[in-house]
What we know:
Chain A is mainly alpha-helical. Helix content of chain A is 71%, strand content 3%. A two-stranded antiparallel sheet of chain A has the order 1-2. In chain A, a hairpin with a 4-residue loop joins strand 1 and strand 2 (76-82). Chain B is mainly alpha-helical. The interface between A and B is large, with 96 and 76 residues.
Amino acid sequence: MAFPWLSAAILFPIGSALLIPFVPDKGDGKQVRWFALGVSLITFLITVGGYLNGYDPAQEGLQLVERVQWLPELGLAWSVGADGLSMPLILLTSFITSLACLAAWPVSFKPKLFYFLLLAMNGGQIAVFAVQDMLLFFLAWELELLPVYLLLAIWGGKKRQYAATKFILYTAGSSLFILIVGLAMAFYGGNTSFEYSVLMAKEFGTKFQLLCYAGLLIAFGVKLPIVPLHTWLPDAHGEATAPVHMLLAGILLKMGGYALLRFNVQLLPAAHAQFAPLLVVLGVVNIIYAALTSFAQRNLKRKIAYSSISHMGFVLIGIGSFSPLGTSGAMLQMISHGLIGASLFFLVGATYDRTHTLQLDEMGGIGQKMRKMFALWTICSLASLALPGMSGFVSELMIFVGFSTSEAYTLSFRIVMAVLAAIGVILTPVYLLSMLREIFYGRENTELTSHANLVDAEPREIYVISCLLVPIIGIGLYPRLMTDTYRASIEALVVRENLALKQLSLPPAGGELIRQQLLKAPLLPA
Amino acid sequence: MPSAAELAWLIPVLPLLGACLSGLGLISFNRTVNRLRKPVALLLISSVGAAAVLSFAVLAEQLGGAAPVEVLFNWASAGSFNLQMGFRVDALGAVMLSLVTTVALLVMVYSDGYMAHDKGYVRFFTYLALFSSSMLGLVISPNLLEIYVFWELVGMCSYLLVGFWYDRDGAAHAAQKAFVVNRVGDFGLLLGILGMFWATGSFGFEQIGSGLQQAVADGSVSNGVAILLCLLVFMGPMAKSAQFPLHVWLPDAMEGPTPISALIHAATMVAAGVFLVARLQPVYEAFPAVNLVIAVVGTITLFLGATIALTQMDLKKGLAYSTVSQLGYMMLAMGCGAPVAGMFHLVTHAFFKAMLFLGSGSVIHAMEEVVGHEPVLAQDMRLMGGLRRSMPITSTTFLIGCVAISGIPPLAGFWSKDEILGQAFGSFPVLWAVGFITAGMTAFYMFRLYFLTFEGNFRGGDTALQAQLLAAAGKPVGSDAEHSDHHKASLPHESGWQMAMPLAVLAVPSVLIGLLGTPWNSRFAALVDPHEYAHMAKSFSWAEFLPLAGASVAISVAGISLAAFAYLLHKLDLAQAVAARFPRINAFLANKWYLDAINDKLFVQGSRKLAKSVLDVDSKVVDGVVNLTGLLTLGSGEGLKYFETGRAQFYALIVFGGVIALVVLFGSLG
């Protein structure tokens, strides 16, 4: 039997986390942090090993499959595997977590518990992407909530209790939908099973699909997040510490996008064909609404948090685009935002360590004192505003091109949506560059510089950002580095959803405004 | 051995490598690299120099009649879509490559002198190389998509360079404004590119041109939509080439160091828009309505720029508005369906405007020795005067630039501007009239700049006037007096060789290059567009040329004479004679047509207010509903107690446990 790469990637960090109480440490975290860093690096190497040894990007189906009966009376099996939808995100998870361990270097309050939770979360998150069983998925989804909750509630800012409770209520509440839908789907027809592959083969009725889709959309919409289900996010991000922040933005939000692709699109294609216009509209709302709130926000962390919401809007448009290019762009946008969002949040944390304030009004002119920090901020902000040569540009462009050439929608719908989404292209630099200006440009804010110790970026910080920038720029220069790893799966997925679109007999209310008559010849030459 | 054209991809890559190297050095070993000023500068100058050599080799091949070269590869793909990148070298591109590398090289040499005492010297050179690389990449782009990529990168470099002195508030605002206004244009450009791809399935210029006409002909795209797409794409050039109403960023961008103003805001970056319109001629020529819009926008811009330039007291801002005006001429040419004339003006203008800006930099550099590092003082012409005696090279080259831009034969500006006016006369006589009058204004304001700066007596020592200017700008008077007083000179001096040499070099093409584009034998047209060359040579007649050219020269001479009367001989006090008599017009011009005020009220304040109210809705309504439901479900007081005592963890565990129990229950039932 081949080496169980995925099980190892899930169980190794969790198992090692259980050993943390026995790690000799004086209580200041100086030993345990090396242990955690080592574990997270090994986990990263395991996922890379799995990718290199057991994963063939040219194949569309499930690979690295492991299946062990667990509780046969429940129909529960330990079933993991990876395809193009999950492999890049598994790599992203282990990569970002190892950087988060490095970002957590200065944590000195209850370090053992902190690293325990960080490592447990690492395993949980990989499990979310790797499991191939809906019940397991639900368990992993819930399991990963607890560490986040505790990380927020213990190490957060002043309003941490409120933020953590809000987070847990929101996500735990909405995840009940996953359970209910999962159970319903498993018991539908004969052949009770939670396995994705079994569910995929079932022919669900359209009404049933629509109900399931709506439930899952709420569950994953909270996670992604989709406006108006987003209000937990600014609070959670506003209170979290930098490493938690990186994980929240880098990985947690992607769970929502991944789950939408995995369940809503893959398992419920008929419902997706009807719901997709809604996704596109919600995506546009996300982009504009969150960009405006980000612009008005005076708190640095919350500003970046809202910008995350805005960027995730593109994922929604891509998922609803019915085009291989757009869907591929959605996937790339998730990866890209995982990297860029993590880098920005890391910088927020690093800046806060120095200024001890997050209010933009209390900053200003600190570029003189912190030149390297200024440079890193500038590069990451430019990446976030989708500058060509960096990954964000490619993914947004792919989504734009994919959506605007999609044959699933009428021309007028595409025009209106593309124009509105493109307004985001103007708004994003407005809030990001204003932010840079208010932090770094202008005359020195003497009140801040007199009592804050503004040392410039240290090598550890430069290293973390460079690690994130290498893939950001690499993908930006040659996107096929990333897109080729999942291309086959995405194309198969799009074929499946387009098939469902063709069978769509009854357009939703007002559908003729949005839906193109599919009988018409396609506008595009092949 | 590969031909130079096949190696053209190296032209942008070389400066990029240099910039990356020094940029990485700056971040990793800041102190060491900052100390290695000359080696880094030498490295970057030689990388641009190598690019220049290669560019001229490419140009030589094109002059020798080589065919265009295009190389493409699949950059991103999904399904049946392929987004392609690559490079393309043709005559137009070769001209631009040589132009950009030449000006960039000279500006870099000049910067060695200008920035010698700046602590950001290495960073400045890094940005310069990065900028050159982006601009060169834009020039060799084979399709709209790649143009868009470099378009944005050029915009980013402009952002970095305008905000170079980031401790100045003005620079910070100007940099942001430049980027955001350009993004407004890019918004249209992006949508236009997407629309054209939707309509034609291609990003290539020729393919879009033929595809769009085909689509209109067979009815799959209506004529109106096609025109709309063309105009959307034109929004990009409008922003980048500072056309009304998106020109507002360019004058503000003068906050950057002067070599940047010369390179970006006169010679190269602003030329990108004109260049793109020239590239898009295969698309635009089928739609007369689009060309009309381009011509009208160009005309409004050239008139607006010239009128505002009449009242500017800041030397650099005066030149900036003259750039706006000249870019208007180029767009007018494009709108008249005469891209060759527009491109020719772009080339001549690049040389003399770069020279003028570098000259103004030389003046400002010298003024700073007298009045200190305060842009409000060092750039104000009311404090200058009489600099001809102390700065002979600067003043001579500046004078050449003024003559060239005013359109006096046989200097460069005459030939190119006259060609545009001739084309406009044939296509849109009304627009020609505006362009003609503006030519007179151009001559007037340029010589006004020259006389105020270089003639008369030096006024820099007038401390009362200095205090008055500072007060008007809202700056504290005498703030830096104590620490810079002791090394202030009483008279400015000529700049060092690094700064004087580029001025002298640029003077040569400013005088001579126009002769390559004489209407009866335009070698420029022969290179860029042989058909146009044949057409021009055939339709040329002295009887048509002489009256028009004569009229142009006459109005320029009139403008120069008026300036001489007012500012050299002081026979005429224009402030009394005109400004006082028409206070409204004067205020209108001095306030730059109130466009900045309108922008601020409408867009800046408006978007802030909108964002603020959306945030209010978010925190009060959307989040309010959430909190309310949270409270209701938890039974108000009890719930809050859980929040505060930290027993929420316990609560979460109960939720979790309950879920597991449910799972087991369902499992056993099933």
